[in-house]
Design brief:
Layout lengths: L2 E5 L8 H14 L4 E5 L5 H5 L11 H5 L8 E4 L2 E4 L8 H4 L9 H6 L8 E5 L6 H9 L2 E7 L3 H18 L6 E8 L6 H14 L13 H8 L4 H4 L4 H14 L2
Helix pairs in contact: 1-11
Length: about 250
Amino acid sequence: MTKVIALFNQSGGVGKSTLTMNLGYALAKKKQKVLLLDLDPQASLTTFMGIDTYDLDKTIYDAIVGEEDLPIYSQLHLMDLVPSNINLSGAEIELVSALMRELKLKEAIAPYLSKYDFILIDCPPSLGILSIISLVASTHLLVPIQCQFKAFQGTDLLLNTVAKLRKSVNKNLAFAGFMPTMYDGRTAQESRTYEAIKEQLFPLATVFEPIPKSIAFADATEKRVPLAIYKPKHPAIKIFNKISQQLIKL
Ligand code: ADP
Ligand code: MG
């Protein structure tokens, strides 16, 4: 069965888009067929993957609002991508009055499930309709989380939203896990927070090994390639490989 995984955290700048690309690449290297969906009007993932957002003919917007086929860009770093651009910001308003709007993404991807082992959804940094339709379309939820105290405040809100969805529109939504990101283990505060995250969140789901903070991530995205292409020996690559192995076993 295809695993549809939403990378979701309503905070911005926690590394969702970076993780979506790098985890997708690690899975693709393991011979998994991977489709990435950019659900963020800011379109970081689309840009990171090397696509210019301005001259796009079709985006995820046309599939969700216009109910057209998914516009798939094939074989970018071994993966397929459905891009986004600023047009998608209109969807929040346009979907307000749509019938069964929660199902819009689930229905859009349904015809493609048999083609992929993994569909990774890069969610926007909000709890709005674009995140909701992403979570409704997903089988699993992966939560990037920074090892800073403020991360806990956001987590309560996130868990409440997930609990509501599980009671109503997506009873089968499972946790893939929490992914500590941009981790600097040299600072006492971050390592303390990492321990606290493990302790508090472990009962809910796996807390994966943290992805280290490293300027190489920004350098790789500037070059518009996954880290593993830019710097194959970077220590984070082993961690992505381990996590992708765990995701395959889900
Ligand atoms: P989000 O999608 O949650 O908004 P991004 O993936 O766009 O977050 O990342 C935000 C910024 O942080 C980007 O400039 C990115 O290059 C940088 N970044 C992401 N992961 C790391 C990391 N592990 N270490 C250092 N910088 C990172
Ligand atoms: Mg993003």
